[in-house]
Amino acid sequence: MPASDAHPAAPFTCPAAGSGLLPDELRAWMILLAATGAVEQRMRSVVKETLGVSHDEFLILCLLAEQPRTGLRMTQVADLLGRPKTRLTYQIACLQHAGLIARTSVCGDKRGVQVALTDKARELLSETSTLLAGTVRQALADSMGPDQRAAMCALVPDLPDPEGEPSGG
User: In what residue span(s) does the HTH marR-type domain sit (predicted)?
Assistant: First the structure.
């Protein structure tokens, strides 16, 4: 178990609405950032161990897994992930070298490149999705206080409670 998993950060709990300097929207955004950071930190090592790819490469695989089999143009992937196109080109090359991504030219556009998951990538994601989903659930549960956990249960119904109490009340 990585050191970061042994002692998860204390849950980010917010004061009651209207009790601080920040409006509710910014407070909610801070909760989302804290939860996202906790998930990313935990996922980095799990993704590397189970899939053999970086976290950023994993995000590309996840994005393409939710698309039609024809995939997406590289510019769309860069825009959707908020990544510079130059960095994306390197990551796609690594995924292609690993046999997880196929690159094709876009018909009628000499410069356009389309990327899609290979069958190998689909199989790998299918085999590891339960483990990866469990990692996300646990990281979210460990990073949130009771009120935030209750709100998150609308998105992730079986979010565990680190204290062993039922979630979603």
Answer: 25-161
Closest CA to 93 of 35, 54, 127: 54
Q: What b/e sequence results for 132-146 when a residue is b if at least 16 CB atoms lie within 10 Å of its CB, and e otherwise?
A: beebbbbbbbbbbee
Contact 63, 72 (CB under 8 A): yes
Provide the residue ranges of all domains of the chain, joining segments of one domain with +. Answer: 22-152
Q: What is the pTM of this model?
A: 0.76
For the ranges 21-30, 40-49, 87-96, which has the lowest average pLDDT? Answer: 21-30
Digit-coded pLDDT (tens) for 3-17: 444 445 555 554 445
Chain centroid to CA 151: how far?
19
